[in-house]
Structures are given as C-alpha cells and as structure tokens.
Design brief:
Shape: elongated
Largest sheet: 6 strands, antiparallel, barrel
CATH architecture of one domain: Beta Barrel
Structural class: alpha+beta
CATH class of one domain: Mainly Beta
CATH superfamily of one domain: Type IV secretion system, VirB10/TraB/TrbI
Oligomer: single chain
CATH topology of one domain: Lipocalin
Helix content: 25-40%
Length: 340
C-alpha cells in the first residue's frame, strides 16, 4: 500500500536553506551612509574626508552643503543672462539710491538750501532757519538777473521799499500763536509822484505772529497779510514783515525768561538731594541703608527732571497795545486812489 505520510522527510519553510548554519557565516551589514553627495563632487569630497580622517558616517557640515548647492546651481544654470531681471534689479537699486539721497533731484541751489535747512534744524538751537522759512524768503541762482525791466502797470502803485507807519491795536503774547491788529498812523501816497493818496490814516493791518521763541530771543516776529481801508475795501498782502521805528526786524518790548520759576526748580531739586544724604551713622541697618539709597536715587532723578522742564520753558515776549511799528513793503502793491 502507498504511504500517506513520509515520516523521514520533514517539510521545511521556504528560505531556510539559504540561512547560515552558525553565526560565523553571517555577513556584516553595510555601513550607514550620510546625506547624498552631489554628482561630480562626490569623489573629491570622499577623498578629502579620508585625508582628514572623517568617517563616512558623519553628517556633512553646513559649509559643505553650501558648496555642493552652489555647484549644483552652477551646473544647472543657463548660459545666457536674463537682461530683464538685470534691468529690474538696476531699477530697484536706483530707486533705493534715490530714496537715500532726496536732495539729488533738486537743482544745486535748492539742494544746498534744503541740506542747510536740515542741518540747521538739527543743530541750531535758535531756530534761525525756521524764522527764514516763516518769512518765505528764497533766492535765485546765477550771476545774472533772469527778470527783465518792468514798467509800472498802474500809476496807483506802492512799490517795494515803501514804509508804512502804524501802531498796535492788540497786544502780543508769544505763549500762544494768534492774530494781531494794527492801525496806520500816517497817510501813504504812491511811490512815483507822492501826490496820490492810496492808504489813508486809520486803515487797519491784519497779521499773525510767531509763537516759537528760542532761548535768549527778545524780539517778536510778525507779518502782515491784509489791509482794510476805511471805506470797507481791502487788499491781501504777501506777508509784509513788521519792524520797529528804526527798521530792525521784529518788535521788542517786555521779555519774561521765567528766571524765578527756574530758581524755584533748582532749589527744590537741591532740597530733595540734601534730604536724602542724611544717614544714621554706622548703626543703620541694611534695610534702612537700602531705603535711603533708593530714595536718594529717585530724588536725584526727580530733581533732574524738574530742572530740565524748567530749562525747556521758552521765554515769553509781550508787546503792549499802542506800540509803534513800521511795515516794509517788499512787493509792489497796486491800489486805487482813495477818496474820503
């Protein structure tokens, strides 16, 4: 009869025949490699690592990765240059350069004045440049006058250089900006003949004054912007500066430098500093000493702040009503004969 089951030959699983019979037949695992190396530079990098004694399993440094990335970009980059991108970069560079030098687009004379204005605003504590800007003064460049000879457009004209006598109706206090009103005290006639009455006595002048006063300043700066005639007619004028009776710019009357307030601030700061200098001698504890030193520092800091605030108070210029003044005309004014 046939054997249904062979007991001498046992079935084995697939793959067991390929396994080694003992541990001596096992092969070592291949070494673990680091990051993948870039194409053509793989061999030089490995040789350099062998020379330096670096094992292959170490990670590649950041410098090596950067050099490898540059090599890949150089190998894969195009031969021709992109003109459009270069033009865009040039435009960006030019715009940045233009933003760094805002005065280069101006004419040479205006650029010089603008630079001088910035420098004056940063370093001039008397704010002289601001006063010039307030009067809107400007000069033209070149050695020749670009303007031709002009003839009067009207016989009823008050030309530049004429002087208008007036006196203040309202006072001036430089603590705050405001309007000022003056009254013409003498008749003003035309410049050419001197026989035609243009501005009668009693006309009103409307103007503004500058409230920014620099340290040591004693004169108030004001300009006139409108003339009101007694018959109700008026004319706008272009910031005519006011001067005293001798022709000096501005008006000088009373000046308050706030000296007493500054002295009180200095005295208070001194008292605060002296009060914290007292000690209990060698017997004071660490806690008392720490409190005293902290109070001394805070008092000294408060005294400095008080003194700085008092020093930053600008002088107050006061010009009383009725103060005589002169208005100097710097542009020709065309009016009509005044008939009372």
């Amino acid at each position: 009869a046939e054997d249904l089951y062979n007991t001498e030959r046992k079935p084995t699983a697939e793959g067991l025949d390929t396994l080694p019979h003992d541990y001596s037949g096992m092969k070592p695992k291949p070494p673990v490699l680091g990051l993948p190396l870039p194409g053509d530079l793989g061999r030089p990098i490995l040789e350099r690592q062998r020379q330096l004694g670096i094992v292959p399993g170490q990670d590649i440094s950041a410098e090596e990765q950067r050099l490898a990335q540059q090599a890949i970009e150089a190998r894969e980059s195009r031969v021709l240059f992109r003109v459009e991108n270069r033009a865009q970069k040039t435009d960006v560079g030019e715009s940045v350069q233009t933003a760094q030098h805002p005065f280069e687009a101006l004419p040479q004379s205006e650029a010089g004045r603008a630079s001088a204005s910035v420098a004056a605003a940063e370093g001039d504590q008397n704010n002289q440049q601001r006063k010039l800007d307030f009067l809107s003064q400007r000069s033209t460049g070149g050695i020749y006058n670009p303007h031709a000879l002009q003839t009067p457009i009207s016989p009823y004209q008050l030309m530049a250089g004429s002087v208008i006598a007036a006196s203040l109706i309202t006072g001036i206090n430089s603590d705050l900006p405001g309007l000022v009103v003056a009254q013409v005290t003498e008749n003003v006639h035309d410049t050419v003949t001197g026989n035609i009455l243009l501005i009668p006595q009693g006309s009103r002048l409307i103007g503004v004054y500058d409230s920014v006063v620099a340290f040591g300043q004693k004169r108030a700066l004001l300009v006139w912007q409108r003339i009101l005639l007694p018959d109700g007619s008026s004319a706008e004028i272009d910031n005519l500066p006011a001067s005293d009776t001798a022709g000096y710019a501005g008006l000088e009357d009373e000046v308050d430098f706030h000296t007493w307030q500054m002295i009180k601030g200095v005295a208070l700061a001194t008292l605060l500093g002296v009060g914290t200098e007292f000690s209990l001698g060698e017997n004071e504890s660490d806690l008392v000493k720490a409190i005293r030193e902290s109070a001394q520092q805070n008092a000294s800091r408060a005294g400095q702040r008080i003194t700085e605030k008092n020093l930053n108070i600008q002088p107050t210029i006061v010009v009383r009503p009725g103060w005589p003044l002169r208005v100097i005309v710097h542009k020709d004014i065309v009016l009509r004969p005044y008939a009372s």
